[in-house]
Design brief:
The chain has 187 residues and is mainly β. The chain is built from three helices and nine strands. The strands form two sheets. A seven-stranded antiparallel β-sheet has the order 3-4-5-9-8-7-6, with helices on one face. A two-stranded antiparallel sheet has the order 1-2. The two termini are 32 Å apart.
């Protein structure tokens, strides 16, 4: 028996541009389990893949974009818990961009969604996004740039005057949109 997909729309504030940000809450009945070898129907597919694999996360934003986003000019490189590169910019806002290119793309997040305090589906520039464990001062995002590649974004609003305060996920989506402009086409 096939899975039934129900979509509900939740308003989640405004992106930095003043455009309303909408998250789509995805619920599946029937377990959302795919047959062996088939993609899970509850996980959105990436129709226009970009290539993230092999990227330097500290070079994913231009100096002009960093300035526009209110981030420092230089990020601090490190490694994710998955032994992939990440980069953190920290001032009034802390933003970390990380690569997740060795696993199953957004499927990793959808299969573990009950482990998060909250989980919402969204979309940025035609790419599927999930928000996880978010609040007014914190948001974790996973952007599906290809079916097997995810850009992770962690946004923390450190002080009340930061641009991300009260809308960390909207700010994170703005960061994602800027990164997506810079990624090459192809998975």
């Amino acid at each position: 028996m096939g899975a039934l997909l129900l979509l509900g729309v939740v308003s989640c504030g405004e992106a930095m541009s003043g455009t309303p940000v909408t998250a789509v809450n995805t619920v599946t009945s029937g377990g959302g389990q795919a047959k062996s070898g088939e993609p899970d129907p509850s996980v959105p597919r990436v129709s226009n893949p970009k290539r993230l694999r092999g990227s330097d996360p500290c070079a994913l934003l231009t100096q002009a974009q960093l300035t526009s986003l209110g981030l420092p000019a230089k990020g601090k490189p490190a490694e994710t818990t998955l032994s992939e590169p990440k980069c953190t910019w920290s001032d009034d806002i802390r933003v970390t961009l990380g690569l997740d290119t060795k696993r199953r793309g957004l499927t990793e997040f959808y299969t573990r969604q009950k482990a998060f305090d909250n989980f919402k589906s969204s979309q940025v520039a035609g790419f599927p996004v999930v928000w996880m464990d978010f609040s007014n001062v914190l948001c974790n995002l996973a952007v599906g740039v290809a079916d097997d590649q995810v850009l992770t974004i962690h946004v923390g609003s450190i002080v009340s005057r930061s641009r991300a305060q009260g809308n960390t996920c909207g700010y994170g989506e703005t960061v994602a949109a800027e990164v997506l402009k810079n990624l090459p086409v192809g998975g």
